[in-house]
Amino acid sequence: MDQDATTNIRLINTEVFVLGVGLEGNTSALDRSVFKVNCEPSTNLQYHYETEGWLNQTLAKEYGPSDPYITQLVDISIDEATERGISLGKAALLGAGTGRGAFELAKHFEEVVGIDYCARFIDAAMKIQKKISVPFLTENDGKRSKHEARVDEGIQADRVVFKQLTWIPVEIGLFDFVLFDFIDRVMNPKAWLVRLWEMVTQTGLIVVASSDGWDQEKLAPIIGKKLDYVGTQSLKYSDNDEDQVAVITMWQRK
To answer: How many CA atoms lie within 13 A of 207 on its CB side?
Structure first.
């Protein structure tokens, strides 16, 4: 081989957090005299949430001193479920984040499955469930404050099971209630949406929450063949000091 010749290699340098293991290094053993290595971030945007920065931001949103979006969303969802006579047996939260929403659902449901694709989020949720210290920082008027994420007293945290999933497997089972809360941060929303009907019982309720345009008009062509639209609510909240509005749509099986 010509000593001046090199082979171009594209190397993904995005850090990967592995549940139960932690941060895995991705160092390369390639001979740089033979290979010309170009390091680039992964095009899978879901990996971009696997950072300490995103973890802290999510913990602050869910367990911070202000009234969290997720607790308000769960309250609205429970009111809807109760009004419609939905059984409070088994619930699933798609987009469990660091666990606050799943713990809130456990106040009402006998079993809760909290699902997220982000290993770092699920790792934190499981630690909080086991009462292991999970600190985070908040900032107000330039001043930083340290906090610790905790499950509220009186919540039966053992009702919750957390799972890291990047899709909805067939064996996931049936639920009386499904809250889909990460449609705005999954790479392929339609892949999740078309499987929602398979997760809910014939008399159950599906709630889809979005701050990025996923309203009844946009959802109906994708899920309307299997699900009936039964109502909409809106939730005003603050995210990084910016006013936001989440559109909350309710669906039931045909």
So the answer is: 28
Interatomic CA distance for residues 221 and 32, integer angstroms: 51
CA angle 72, 74, 76 (to 5 degrees): 70
Question: Residue 248: which of 206, 220, 203 has the closest Cα?
Answer: 206
Report the length, in residues, of the chain: 254
> Which is nearest to 176 in space by CA: 196, 207, 209, 205?
205
Choose among 92, 108, 74, 86: nearest CA to 235: 74
Question: What pTM does this model have?
Answer: 0.87
- In percent, the amount of the chain with pLDDT more than 90 equals 71
DSSP code for 216:
H
Axis crossing angle, helix 69-83 with helix 52-63, rounded to the nearest 10: 50
pLDDT in tens, 107-132: 999 999 999 999 999 999 999 999 99
C-alpha span between 10 and 28 (Å, rounded) = 11
